[in-house]
TrEMBL record:
Keywords: Disulfide bond, FAD, Flavoprotein, NADP, Oxidoreductase, Redox-active center. Gene3D superfamilies: FAD/NAD(P)-binding domain. The keyword Isomerase does not apply. GO terms for biological process: removal of superoxide radicals. GO terms for molecular function: thioredoxin-disulfide reductase (NADPH) activity. One of its GO terms (cellular component) is cytoplasm. Its EC number is 1.8.1.9. Homodimer. Binds 1 FAD per subunit. It comes from the Bacteria. Coiled coil: none annotated. This is Thioredoxin reductase. It catalyses: [thioredoxin]-dithiol + NADP(+) = [thioredoxin]-disulfide + NADPH + H(+).
Length: 319
């Protein structure tokens, strides 16, 4: 049986592993079969992670985090957890081969997935002009013409934020009115750099080495048109990866795993959660990493408290 099992290999999971391993809890980390390394594997330059003044490629950063976690004794398994049982004091996690792994504590760091458009060119040009995060990538689009897809609060926030850098921001929305709150809408309407393209969806993203043109389809009459751009931000929603814990852990109204205050304590004793799966607001590599630290420290204290509670009895027996 393990002291701690970590599910997820993004910045939250690996940072939790570094702390847990250095506390000699010899963590077992499930890194996933197909998407090991988390969201940063899908990007190129990361310029806002402290300690890398020249920036670092997303996959290189994740490789370094993994090496650091392994250096202190983390065991990494390239498999997914497909089922969890948090009911007893011993937690039981089943992998995709059906093997059951037991642990005294679990750190759940499965991240969240930005919704994709599912159109031709999107995967290929991800990190090459196509982005899901204005905070992360807006800086790369100084004086460029870019487009934002979406009609909710986050799309308006991204579009307004991007006008700090871009010379022009198109907002492409499939309807003729927005879902965003009135105040966010007004802020975008008032911004001279923003132009709305209504009743339209992106049908294809073009570009050789970087996105340079969109095919738009009119959602009313189906006609197609071309829009030259230098960047595209997709802001059509985000889904925390919580399907494993539905009905097992409390969730928030935003769909993230609920934790107590600033801690990582979930609604199940001995189960801690960290990173984007608990975060509806910030969703950055450094905030996920910090949250992984909190989870490892919480797990360590939880285990120490269990051991402390067990010791007086053991002492009494020995005496
Ligand atoms: C294109 C892109 C660019 C970005 N650029 C930046 C940037 O420049 N700077 C920045 O700070 N942030 C950036 N971000 C945001 C950043 O990547 C996330 O905030 C961060 O990765 C969240 O870390 P996490 O550990 O919580 O989750 P993730 O990174 O999402 O990692 C979770 C991992 O858990 C795995 N997992 C899920 N379920 C299971 C399971 N059942 N079993 C095993 N494994 C499982 C997933 O497959 C995934 O590998 C970017 C995001 C994207 C999408």
């Amino acid at each position: 049986m393990r002291e701690v099992i970590i599910i997820g290999s993004g910045p939250a999971g690996f940072t939790a592993a570094i702390y847990a391993a250095r506390a000699e809890l010899t963590p077992l980390l499930f890194a996933s079969q197909v998407s090991m390394g988390g969201e940063l594997m899908n990007t190129t330059d990361v310029e806002n992670f402290p300690g890398f003044p020249e920036g670092i490629q997303g996959p290189d950063l994740m490789q370094k985090m993994q090496e650091q976690a392994e250096r202190f004794g983390t065991e990494v398994v390239y498999d997914d957890i497909s089922e969890v049982d948090f009911t007893g004091e011993i937690k039981r996690l089943t992998d995709t081969n059906g093997t059951v792994h037991e642990a005294r504590s679990v750190i759940f760091a499965t991240g969240s997935a930005y919704r994709k458009l599912g159109v031709e060119g999107e995967e290929r040009l991800s990190g090459h002009g196509v982005s899901w995060c204005a905070t992360c990538d807006g800086f790369f689009f100084r004086d460029k013409t870019i487009a934002v897809v979406g009609g909710g609060d986050s799309a308006m926030e991204e579009a307004t934020f991007l006008t700090r850098f871009a010379k022009k921001v198109y907002v492409i929305h499939r309807r003729d009115s927005l879902k965003a709150s009135k105040i966010m809408q007004q802020r975008a309407f008032d911004n001279e750099k923003i132009e709305f393209i209504w009743n339209s969806e992106v049908a294809e993203i073009h570009g050789e080495s970087s996105a340079d043109r969109l095919t738009l389809r009119n959602t009313v009459d189906g006609t197609e048109s071309e829009l030259p751009i230098e960047g595209l931000f997709v802001a059509v929603g985000n889904d925390p990866r919580t399907h494993l814990v539905h009905g097992k852990l409390d969730l928030t109204d935003e769909g993230t795993i609920a934790v107590e205050g600033r801690s990582s304590q979930t609604s199940a004793s001995g189960v801690f959660a960290a990173g984007d799966v608990i975060d509806p607001s910030y969703r950055q590599a450094v905030t996920a990493a910090a949250s992984g630290t909190v989870a490892a420290l919480d797990a360590e204290r939880y285990l120490a408290a269990l051991d402390g509670a067990a010791q007086p009895e053991a002492a009494a027996v020995a005496g």
